[in-house]
Amino acid sequence: MLFNSFEFLLFFLPTTLALFFLSARYFGNEAAIGLLVLCSLGFYSWWNPIYLLLILFSMAFNFQVGKRLGQRSHKGLLAFGITVNLGLLAYYKYANFFVSNVSSLLATHWSLGDILLPLAISFFTFQQIAYLVDSHRGITREYRFLHYALFVSFFPQLIAGPIVHHRDMLPQFMRTTPFCLKPNHFAIGLSIFAIGLFKKTVLADGIASYANPVFNAADSGQTVDFFTAWGGALAYSFQLYFDFSGYSDMAIGLARMFGIVLPLNFYSPYKAASISEFWRRWHITLSHFLRDYVYIALGGNRRGRTRRFANLMTTMLLGGLWHGAGWNFIIWGGLHGLYLILHQMWQALLSKLSLSPSGSAYSALAWLMTMLCVVVGWVFFRATTFEGAIGLLQSMIGLHGFTLPQGIMARLGDVGVLLQSLGMEVAFGGGQVFVLTWLWIMALLIIVLVMPNVQDMFNWVRCSLRNQHFDTTDSVWPMLSRVCKLQWKESIGWAITCAACLALGFLTLFQVSEFLYFQF
């Protein structure tokens, strides 16, 4: 079941909200929690009922192992618990990838057949591994299974994150004050959800039609020209941005309707002026998990520069592999590992030379370089074949020529004649797609850079758990922060705006599309 579907919006959500608050009022919080667990499991099983057994086993197993680790720390038991979790993830997500690669190396035809990837397995696996590690460290409390089950299965965050942490969520489920429907919480949640729905269904899905044909052509072995390649790569970059941003907003909004606050998971990453800042803003809860349970566990930055860089690269390679069983995801992770290493080396050089460059020009250049690196990475992330990604990157550096539609070339007049003399080719047709692609890109770029994100728009009502301060000195914010300062408030104007977002979102539901992060 998708957030952007009629069955969710018209049946599941209102029914679950009504039953939850009625249960809390007449039978108490525990009954409401139990009902919400059942509804969340029903939400999960809508996709494939057979995998309901998997998540139930995972919850029961990890709760028992965590309980025993909390009573008595034991490295062997921790290793066993992590092995079982990673074993399930490895089988369902990576077994075919491993077998196909071994089969290719040995020139055999081994195959495990089709293994359907259980929805959200990457998310609830990491979530529970963190719980086991913290139980081993003695920093978890004695929780009831009912609360733990909701911690794992809570439907707003179950499918595509955020990767919630027990210290953030379980105390909210264990509250002694009764759950009750509060109009201001509901208004805030519905407003955030409406904005997220608009981002997903109107913006992300709107520009997707200009990204998909380009990548499909590249993956099929076709070559595209410079402008088409960049149009496709940038279109996908914004599609993914608004798809993930929209989902994150919808998850936070849904949870808030129930009186639950989720952690911040997305904070204007395309405003970042360094790759390190990008990763402090993109998929924040995954970044925290990789830092706390992989990078630091490997030694972090405690054993010299070479070891620090090796730990960083290993962490990012694993982060890439977490996203999908494919070499392109591993390459994407490796690229970001390389970016982070180069950024640390650059920072060390500036420190050694006692330089601290600043100013609008430097910030703009740093932002441009960061975006270039990110977009190049997204090419591998989106392409389904290595050859397709390489072919598209070759087009992006001009190796497959430069082409403009005839209609645009004609309007350029003498400039068009000059461009043709320099080797610019003319394409017959395609002018409308070309113009619309770049209009979409420019419009979304303006929204990304100028408009405040939902967290800042709703800052005064604490719409999410915000566990870190975002330093804006390393971004393009100094140039743009004063352009648009929208602040949500309970008013007729905002009610009309959010209603319009909902209405536009509803109008697009006849062509439902999955969130891109559902595949991970």
What does this structure look like?
It is a single chain. With 520 residues, this protein is an all-alpha fold. The chain has 2 domains: 6-181, no CATH class; 186-519, no CATH class. Helices cover 68% and strands 1% of the residues. The chain is built from 22 helices and 2 strands. Strands 1-2 form a two-stranded parallel sheet. Helix 15 (360-382) packs antiparallel against helix 16. The longest helix is centred in the middle third of the chain and has 37 residues, at 183-219. The protein is globular and about 80 Å long. The relative contact order is 0.11. The mean pLDDT is 90.
Q: What's the topology here?
A:
Blueprint: H1 6-27, H2 29-45, H3 52-71, H4 75-106, H5 121-137, H6 145-153, H7 155-158, H8 166-173, H9 183-219, H10 226-257, H11 275-281, H12 284-295, H13 305-323, H14 327-352, H15 360-382, H16 386-396, E1 403-405, H17 406-411, H18 414-421, E2 425-427, H19 431-450, H20 454-457, H21 477-480, H22 492-507
Parallel strand pairs: 1-2
Helix pairs in contact: 1-2, 2-6, 3-4, 3-5, 3-6, 4-5, 6-8, 9-10, 9-16, 9-22, 10-15, 10-16, 10-19, 12-13, 13-14, 14-15, 15-16
